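Entry type: protein chain
Record version: 2
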Amino acid sequence: MLDFLNRHVLQPLAAARAGSKHLHYLRHLRQTQFDSPDVVRARQLVMLKAVLRHAYATVPFYQRTWDEADVHPNDVRDFADLEAFPIVTKTDLRKHEREFLSTAYHGQKLVTKRTSGSTGVPLTIRLDEPGKQWKYACTLRSDEWSGWRLGQRVAKVWGNPEYRHFGWRGQLRNWLLERAVYLDTIHLTDDRIREFATTIRRQRPGLLFGHAHSLFLLADKLKQDGITDIRPHGIVSTAMPLHAWQRKTIEEVFGVSATDRYGCEETSLIACECEKHQGLHLNADSIFAEVESAQKPTHRDGWALTGPLLVTDLANFAMPLIRYRNGDHVTLTDRVCACGRGLPLVEKVEGRDADYVVTPTGSLISGISLTENFALLIDGTAQVQIIQEEVTLLRLRIVPGEAFGPISRQQIANLVADTFGPTMRHDIELVDAIPQEPSGKYRFCVSKVAPQHARALVA
């Protein structure tokens, strides 16, 4: 009854009061997801041309760089024509942030998103309200592929819940609308996991959502404790690759298939598995995806493209990202999913595996949570990599910005002490650049201790 009231009464009332069209968009997206691939691509091309024209007319960065490259939106008649346009990097975003803002949105209230990103480079993204509502609808649609339905409770294995930043209003909204309970990944201890398990056994959430490895740790602990009666309708795993051995434990403990979801803070949802689990459907209603310097091997079903991902945001007109290199490597394919959806597929996502750090007391902290608390809270940090050399020793590689100084070093010391306790030591290494992995991806958190811990869990 509460699920029904939330879905059909509270959610529509809250959307109407806020002037949000996301529920209207969600109904539309549910219908169009089964359009044919040709219809989906034709719709994408129309959206792509619109954002290109808007960017050239109102965004100084694109006006300047496209003129230098001698390209123009009118040149784009098909997707292949986009390859002549310059690639946008994280460095571009950081150095020329103001130039990426559309002059059409000057004076308007925009949504601000700050993230360190998977490469540890702090970025600020601005998003217009209609784009936010559209992206939210796209995300809700993909969440429903897991078996969850709008209005059902959600259990989140996630750090730093957003509603806490809005005081009692945020708590009230979470209680009435989001209906979410959190297991904070910044301090993932056995006691906290047991407390969380008690809560979700009582509340029976429809969706279990969280970092892939955090979900595995939760499932593994419940398995050890013999708790096997938590049965959500769906599980959504995100933020890092969901490995087969993690998926096996998660699905065994919770009795439902895990849905792998992929996105980045800069563009929100990029791709998500459906109920068939034959790859991840690209969120073609909000982004256009390419691979840079692609290899194109053929296979029996057609072709596959492997290389660094380039994303063009089709929904954010306040700060358009066009051919944005987000730092991940993917394999795109022309296979068609058995589910009947016309949305294209990603075969796999590579290079987003965040290590966990083992604290001196034996608990675990996720690398993503550490990135949020270090890269975003240290003044003058252009880029950061955290390496755990020993249980009680961290090495922080930092690419310093102009504002880096004694205050920054004190902030680091305070963060280490607050997060890990007084026995954790740390060294600071100032570098010109963070070294990349052979794949071209950079691991922002590397623990030389955590892999042994993970092997012990699955032994």
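Comment: DSSP finds 13 helices and 20 strands in the chain.
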